[in-house]
């Protein structure tokens, strides 16, 4: 298997330090274009697509491998090994943040720090834990996705993006969702939204920056508080913005948070 072809790996920029970007669900590497220009002169940038999205090799999808986020973490580690990466700064969004964390737990020597945008180890409300969703609501959402993938994308993206005053961003996200292989995307959605990686969090010894948004229906504030409490080496920043994709809707504020942390 050609790992770089499988995940459509691209390398941009200049510099001795590497930034490795991990997309969230439904997105490909182009989702980072609002912040990558600011990094490209100083850093080497590695971007890639999850199998089933973007220009990845969709024939490489193996249901057993990708039945949990561990399979996606193995893809990430394959890329690190193929490119002989060491001490990288990983920037992950949403489920991509958790994929990055799982990779760092398994092979910490690859990673210097994890910069995690709107991460969540579990989207379900369970006991005292508030993940944001009741199981019934998630099952109904996934059933809608199975029935009408395009209709689901049009319905869900306004909630994910927030910022109704910027409808072009919502339309862009919906278009990105619809570029995915729908069969793979439906399976990835179940792995993402019904998974529970809370037990993994305390095993992460890599320093983490947690960037959350003040108004985020996908990863509410309680999730950030939970992660800060259970991650051994974490700093939490709450941006005064809305939505689940601050690197798209609030790139200036997001860049400021990332650059300040990296410069410390």
From TrEMBL:
Family to which this protein belongs: Belongs to the AB hydrolase superfamily.
Any Pfam family matching the protein: Abhydrolase_6
Residue intervals of the AB hydrolase-1 domain: 19-254
InterPro entries referenced in this protein's UniProt entry, alphabetically: AB_hydrolase_1, AB_hydrolase_fold
GO molecular function: hydrolase activity
Keyword DNA damage part of the UniProt annotation: no
Keywords noted in UniProt: Hydrolase
Protein name, as recorded: Alpha/beta hydrolase
């Amino acid at each position: 298997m050609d790992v770089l072809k499988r995940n459509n790996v691209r390398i941009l920029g200049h510099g001795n330090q590497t930034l490795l970007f991990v997309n969230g669900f439904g997105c490909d590497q182009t989702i980072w274009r609002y912040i990558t220009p600011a990094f490209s002169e100083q850093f080497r940038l590695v971007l890639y697509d999850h199998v089933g999205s973007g220009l990845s090799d969709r024939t490489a999808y193996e249901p057993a491998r990708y039945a949990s986020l561990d399979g996606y973490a193995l893809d990430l580690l394959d890329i690190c090994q193929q490119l002989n990466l060491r001490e990288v700064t990983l920037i992950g969004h949403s489920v991509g943040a958790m994929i990055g964390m799982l990779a760092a737990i398994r092979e910490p020597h690859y990673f210097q720090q994890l910069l995690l945008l709107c991460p969540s180890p579990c989207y379900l409300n369970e006991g005292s834990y508030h993940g944001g969703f009741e199981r019934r609501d998630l099952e109904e959402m996934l059933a809608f996705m199975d029935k009408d993938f395009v209709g689901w994308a049009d319905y869900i993206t306004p909630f994910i993006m927030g910022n109704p005053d910027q409808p072009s961003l919502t339309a862009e996200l919906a278009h990105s969702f619809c570029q995915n292989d729908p069969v793979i995307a439906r399976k990835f959605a179940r792995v993402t939204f019904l998974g529970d990686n809370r037990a993994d969090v305390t095993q992460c010894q890599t320093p983490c920056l947690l960037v959350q948004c003040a108004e985020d229906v996908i990863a509410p504030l309680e999730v950030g508080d939970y992660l800060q409490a259970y991650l051994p080496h974490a700093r939490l920043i709450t941006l005064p913005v809305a939505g689940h994709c601050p690197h798209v809707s609030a790139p200036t504020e997001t860049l400021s948070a990332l650059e300040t942390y990296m410069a410390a």
